[in-house]
């Protein structure tokens, strides 16, 4: 029998389809011809309602769409995803979940900070739904492609962070690609991008720390090398990114033996910046 949340969701979808009520058949009786026809009609109504909803959402994120409407569409996606996450009936691939993930592709690459933030929140909720594994991995791969190309680094680092926090098992197989491509984000001119890169790195390092691997030492060494190079550079943005990367590597949850050089380089950087009266390293 559908859960209470599942019945709520069916009622909402029926309202979108025209207000026809749904009365789930009792599992205690063998359905007759009328019950089978009714069930088929109800399934059609749900499919139709979900299609109408996804069509509306797909039109919310055009270049000429007002900001308020874009944010409203993202709130709808987050609400439907929350309902789906509580629905016991959704255990495998879902057309609705896949369509919602497709709707998020445009706002996840938005240059409007408020839209990107709301889309990231909705995507993080989506990543926690088991039925969303395939579209979540597809979005993660797109993010890794953007990292490699140095394009839309704000979106890419946020997607990596959300997948790492919500679905670590999905992210783990992509750890090597992340360590090979995330570093340009630490040198980005935008402080927000450097911060989101650090949050993504911290979440990835926690996953690595919990899964012993022969490759782990190499990943740590590569990250240390990138952080030290940044700390010794003359660019304020790179130094700030290096400090953020070093902080992630020096966190208590990282079983890493090469922390002494990072501490020394970080301390020297901070002292140098203080002596010169600049605030980038603070």
Automatic annotation (TrEMBL):
SUPFAM superfamilies assigned to the protein according to its UniProt record, in alphabetical order: ARM repeat (SSF48371)
Gene3D superfamilies in UniProt: Leucine-rich Repeat Variant
Protein name: MMS19 nucleotide excision repair protein
Organism annotation: Emiliania huxleyi (strain CCMP1516)
């Amino acid at each position: 029998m559908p859960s209470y949340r599942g019945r709520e969701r069916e009622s909402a979808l029926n309202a979108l389809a025209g207000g026809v009520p749904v009365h789930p058949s009792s599992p205690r009786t063998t359905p007759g011809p009328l019950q089978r026809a009714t069930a088929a009609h109800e399934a059609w109504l749900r499919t139709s309602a979900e299609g109408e909803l996804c069509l509306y959402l797909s039109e919310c994120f055009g270049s000429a769409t007002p900001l308020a409407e874009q944010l409203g569409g993202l709130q709808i996606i987050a609400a439907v995803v929350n309902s789906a996450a509580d629905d016991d009936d959704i255990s495998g691939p879902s057309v609705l979940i896949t369509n919602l993930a497709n709707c998020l592709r445009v706002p996840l690459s938005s240059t409007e900070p408020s839209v990107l933030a709301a889309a990231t929140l909705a995507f993080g909720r989506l990543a926690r739904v088991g039925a969303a594994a395939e579209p979540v991995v597809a979005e993660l791969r797109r993010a890794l492609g953007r990292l490699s190309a140095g394009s839309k680094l704000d979106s890419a680092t946020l997607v990596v962070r959300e997948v790492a926090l919500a679905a670590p098992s999905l992210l783990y197989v992509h750890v090597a690609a992340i360590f090979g491509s995330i570093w340009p984000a630490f040198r980005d001119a935008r402080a927000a991008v450097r911060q989101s890169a650090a949050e993504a790195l911290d979440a990835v390092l926690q996953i690595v720390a919990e899964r012993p691997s022969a490759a782990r030492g190499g990943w740590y060494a590569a990250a240390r090398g990138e952080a030290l190079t940044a700390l010794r550079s003359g660019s304020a943005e790179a130094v700030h990114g290096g400090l953020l990367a070093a902080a992630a590597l020096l966190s208590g949850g990282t079983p890493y033996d090469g922390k002494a050089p990072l501490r020394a380089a970080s301390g020297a950087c901070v002292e140098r910046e203080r002596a010169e009266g600049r605030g980038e390293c603070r």
